[in-house]
Write a structure and sequence with these properties.
Elements: E1 10-13, H1 24-34, E2 38-41, H2 48-62, E3 69-72, H3 75-81, E4 85-88, H4 95-102, E5 107-112, H5 115-120, E6 128-131, H6 148-158, E7 163-166, H7 174-178, E8 184-187, H8 189-192, H9 197-211
Parallel strand pairs: 1-2, 1-8, 2-3, 3-4, 4-5, 5-6, 6-7, 7-8
Helix pairs in contact: 1-2, 1-9, 2-3
């Protein structure tokens, strides 16, 4: 069995502090309705039990629409919740070990923050690379130095798998980011903090389609 198809075009990364008091499930549902094709649940402060329960709850929104849910960093949470995969960073479990534990059908993403890490990702059993930060971002405290559009373009050229860009992606810069050759846009505040998350996701989706 091969891995399921997935759509990186508009990739929502959740951030509960950015929701301005709104319910996470409501925002995820709106984003998916607007065109988000993949959701990554990122929780830095949740307990393990809370994280698992939250992942299960989010899947009640994503699964009926065929949108994969990936868990950020936590393989144990993904396994317990039955999520569609995991997105790992450079200091998390090695992608080969993640693949061995999750099996061939899981979706696995890997963060890369520059050319060296992109080269090192060659041959790894991952489905896509999350490249960035493209621009300076406040939503990830340990984000590396901004790569800019030129740096992103070099990472895309080096990558063996599709690349999704992350790091202060917005409606204002989405077209220029897509022009580097990335497969999609990973967004946090552009959707999580938007007055209308569905409209924000739909606007990003239109830009992705126009650049296809």
């Amino acid at each position: 069995m091969s891995r399921p198809p997935f759509d990186l075009g508009v990739y929502l990364v959740t951030d509960r502090p950015a929701l301005a008091g709104r319910d996470l499930l409501d925002v995820v549902a709106a984003a998916v309705a607007g065109g988000a094709g993949m959701v990554q649940l990122r929780e830095k402060a949740a307990t393990t039990r809370e994280f698992v329960e939250l992942a299960r709850a989010v899947m009640t929104v994503t699964r009926p629409r065929g949108v994969p849910l990936l868990v950020n960093d936590r393989l144990d949470v993904a396994l317990a919740a039955g999520a569609d995969g995991v997105h790992v960073g450079q200091d998390d479990m090695h992608p080969a070990d993640v693949r061995a534990l999750l099996g061939p059908d899981a979706l696995i993403g890997l963060s890369v923050t520059g050319e060296a890490e992109t080269r090192a990702a060659a041959g790894l059993p991952v489905d896509y690379l999350g490249a960035g930060p493209v621009f300076a971002t406040a939503t990830k405290k340990d984000a590396g130095a901004p790569q800019g559009l030129a740096g992103l373009r070099r990472m895309v050229a080096l990558a063996e798998v599709p690349v999704v860009a992350i790091g202060a992606i917005s409606l204002a810069n989405a077209a220029s980011v897509l022009a580097t050759g990335v497969a999609g846009l990973a967004v946090v505040s552009a959707v999580c903090s938007a007055d209308d998350p569905a409209a924000a996701a739909a606007a990003l989706r239109r830009i992705v389609r126009e650049r296809a």
